[in-house]
Amino acid sequence: MTQDTKTDWKLSLKMLGPGLLFAGAAIGVSHLVWATRAGADFGLGLIWAVLIVHLFKYPFFEFGPRYAAATGENLLQGYRKLGRGVLFLLILMTIGTMFTIQAAVTIVTAGLAMGLFNVGLGIFHWSCIILLICVSILSIGRYNLLDKTMKVVILTLTISTLFAVLFSFGKSNPHLSFEPVFPFYDGGIIFLIALMGWMPAPIDLSVWHSLWAIEKEKNTKAHFGVKKALFDFNIGYVGTMILAFCFLLLGAIVMYDGTAGKFSSKGGEFAGQLISLYTTSLGDWAKWIIGIATFTTMFSTTLTCLDALPRTMSAATKELKSIAQQELKLDAKAYYWPWMILLLVGTLLILGLLVSSMGLMVKIATILSFMTAPFFAIANYKLVTSSFMPIAHHPSKRMKILSGFGICFLIGFCILYLLSLLKLIG
C-alpha cells in the first residue's frame, strides 16, 4: 500500500460521521417495528421488499452528500435555487411532522429503557431523562460530540444486533424459507406500504445528511470531496440495509407465528412486549442483548432527530431570512437553539397531554411523508443534474436510469397508498 493510498484511507475514515448519523436516524421504527413484524408475519418472504426499497431509494439519499460535497451548500440552499415553492413545501412538511416524530421515537426509547432498567419510573419521566441526555450531548459538545457519540452508538448497535441474531439461530434452530411472499390480500398491502414507505427512511432525510456533511467540513476545517463524502454515505447506507435484514431475521426466528399482530399500538407498551417476547422465546440471557440492541436503535434515532429537526428549521429560517433580507433589508441569524427549545416544548406537550392523540398525528405524519416522497426525489434529481451542480459531479448514466426507476416506484407507491386509503385495495 503506497503512502498516498494510506493517506486517502485515513482521510476517508476521518470523514466518517454524516453517514453514520444518517444510519442512526434511519435505523429506528422502520427497523425495530416494521422489519421485525415483517419477519414475524411472513418469515423471510419479504426480504425482496427490503432489498428493492433500498435499491430504488438509494439515488435520492446519495444526492444529499453528493450535492453538499460538490457545491459546499446544503439541499435547502439548492431547493431555493430550484424555486421557493420547493423550500416552502419542505418547511411546511417539517413543521407539520417534527413534534409528532420526536414524540413517537422518544416514547418508544423510553419504553425500552423501562424494560431494561426497572427502577419504578413512568414513561413520561423516562422520556424527560432521555431528552435531557440528548440535549446535554448536543449542548456540551455540539456537532463534534454528536459525531463521536454516534460512532459508539452505531458500533454498539451493530455488535449487539449481530450477537442477537447469532444466538437466536443457536437457540431456536429455525427452518426458514426464502420463498418470496406477495401479501396483496387481507390487509397485507397496508403493511407492505408501511414497511416500504419507512424503509430505510423518508426521502427528506437527504436534507439532514447534507446539513451534517456541511457541518462536518466546518468542524474539521477540511474539504473532503465528493468521492470521500460518498464513501462515508455508502458505509452508513449499507449498514442500514444489513441491520434491516438482521431485525427481519430476528422477527422470523423468534416470532414467526403471527405473534406480532398482538403487539400494542402504543410505543411504550410495544417496547416492553418486544423485549418480553424475546426473553420468553430465547431465555433470560436474551433480555440484555436484545434490550441493548433495541435501545441503542431507538436512542440513536431520538438523538439524531433531536439534532436534525432544529438544524433543518434553522437552515430553512436562514434561507427565508435571506429572501427577506434581499426584499426587506432584514438580517439573517442562526435559529438552532430557539427551534430546539420549541421542539422540546412541543414534544413534552404531546407526551404529557396529547399522547392519546398520537396515533392520529403519526398517521398524518405518515401520509405527508408518503405523498411528498416523489416530489423531493424529483427535486433532488433535478438539483444534481442542473447547472447549479458542477458537471464533473453529475450522477452517472446508470445512476440516472436507476433514479428514473426510483421515481416511478415512489409514484406507484403513492398511488397504492391512496387506493388503500380509499379501501379500493387491501
Structural features, described:
The chain is an all-alpha fold and 426 residues long. It contains 16 helices and no strands. The chain has a single domain, classed as Amino acid/polyamine transporter I. Helix content is 79%, strand content 0%. The longest helix has 43 residues.
User: Major beta sheet, specifics?
Assistant: none
CATH superfamily: Amino acid/polyamine transporter I
Mean pLDDT: 84
Which CATH architecture? Up-down Bundle
Specify the CATH class.
Answer: Mainly Alpha
Determine Rg (CA atoms, Å).
Answer: 21 Å
Number of helices: 16
* SSE ordering: HHHHHHHHHHHHHHHH
CATH topology: the name is: Amino acid/polyamine transporter I
**Number of extended strands:** 0
Oligomer: single chain
- Tally of discrete structural domains: 1
Distance linking N and C termini: 56 Å
**Class of secondary structure makeup:** mainly alpha
Binned, the helix content reads over 70%
Name the overall outline.
globular
**Approximate strand percentage:** under 5%
Question: What's the short version?
Answer:
This protein is an all-alpha fold. The chain has a single domain (43-421), classed as Amino acid/polyamine transporter I (Up-down Bundle), CATH 1.20.1740.10. Helix content is 79%, strand content 0%.
Based on the model shown, name its key terms.
single chain, 426 residues, mainly alpha, Amino acid/polyamine transporter I, 16 helices, 79% helix, 0% strand, globular
SSE layout and pairings?
Elements: H1 3-15, H2 18-26, H3 29-42, H4 47-71, H5 75-82, H6 84-116, H7 123-140, H8 142-172, H9 188-198, H10 205-220, H11 225-255, H12 267-282, H13 286-328, H14 336-353, H15 358-384, H16 397-421
Helix pairs in contact: 1-11, 2-8, 2-10, 2-11, 2-13, 3-9, 3-11, 4-10, 4-11, 4-15, 4-16, 5-6, 5-15, 6-7, 6-12, 6-13, 6-14, 6-15, 7-8, 7-13, 7-14, 8-11, 8-13, 9-16, 10-13, 12-13, 13-14, 15-16
